[in-house]
Amino acid sequence: MLKISGLIIVSVIAILVVAHIVFRPPSLEGRSVTQAVKASPETMLGRIALEPAALDKGDSGVLPLLDGPDAFAARVAVIRAAEVALDVQYYIWQRDATGLMLMDELRMAAERGVRIRLLLDDNGISGLDDDLAALDALPNVEVRLFNPFILRSFKPLGFTFDFVRLNRRMHNKSLTADGAVSILGGRNIGDIYFGFGPGLQFIDSDVMVVGRAAADIGLDFDRYWQSRSAHPIDRIVKTQGLLDVLMSDARQAGQSAEGQAYIERLRSSNIVTRIEAGQLAFEWTKVTLVSDDPAKGMGEARIRDMLFPQLMALTAAPSHSVDVVSAYFVPGRLFSERIERLAEQGVRVRILTNSQAATDVFVVHSAYVKYRPDLLRSGVELYELKPAFSIRDEPETQGFARTSRASLHSKTLAIDGKRIFIGSFNFDKRSLLLNTEMGVLIESPDMASALAAAFSSSFPFVSYTPRLNDTDKLIWDEAAANGTNIHHELEPGTSLGSRLLLWFLGLLPIEWLL
Q: In what residue span(s) does the PLD phosphodiesterase domain sit (predicted)?
């Protein structure tokens, strides 16, 4: 029996070793080399970015995009306004209504002569191989896949023999047009991010930037485009899709009942006409791009070249407040000790994350709950988003008021009501150690104080607030619509089964993967 077991183990190992050798990524030799374009006053977007009067006020212009439909409309408008080049980088691109419509916008841009570089993480493009291959075949388009799966039919099988590489993903999200305007933040491409249709919607944050910040994002895109993890799709995907299928499916998505309702809703947003007229009200200020070295995708980045150490250095020594919004919050020992120490020193630390009932990644919540008691003991204020709520439609609650079934997806950090970080970085181990991330730190008292105001005015009504009672037992407070306060002794919106599952997942040694 032992001999048979040993033989089986040796055989499995041999198969995995052979698979690792056979199914390795193709050579990058001969891959084209291109660079980001510089903003030019000869383009409409370039004129916005290079406006001399605006540049006297700061090196970059910023405009927050909190509402899902506005964020979608802004992307459409920027793509349509592009005259020279589009650099597009995303972790997830779904083949649904908004995903198809945006991909078709890229097709139309390419056909009018705009150069398009599309870099997608290969873990988040299910069902898109044919569409991307068809798009890549256009003269002005090149598509690359980050850390691609060589097995296309059943991607998860690739983890069995190439786990170390495939476990590292590109979580960045940005769209840059003509080297002048960029949109970045927490949103991927898909209906759930843009408020399309009924059902669950993600609450998220993006920002449009122009000027120096957009130029920096273009240069950062070049680093990823030329990295060892970025493979031309025609060396990975051997099928040849049909543009007619993409065009037809995109048209049907827009003509469906839900599509028509969504397009009508977009008409109430004036962001498209303002972009076309060059009349956006940017706040001009200092903006700093922070981004992981793309070598992190191969496990080769130095610590000092990663986003988190850069961000911590830029936000060191807050004097009175730290406000964090993070969909997935697994701070790890060092970061949790840092914010606990700040709270004990009198800095007000407030954190909004998903409740167990609202989270879309249950296993991450099992890691978060381990840190919750010590955070509360130190004086950190925690807010856990409810899965359903109804509040007034006010500016500081934008993105919260228009959905009744929600999950948090935003990633923001505000320091002292003066500076705010918006990006793709979740405050968890995966963002810290495994995935590549990006974001911008903005010197904006208006934006930072708006987040602080939301913590005071609206977050208490859309969240459960956990606290420790006099006997050090965890309870949750809930502000009811009638003004009363409800106390929950068990995590709200959960069942015995879900709590047992959470406890079991918390026993597993997998926090480093989360």
A: 166-193, 404-431
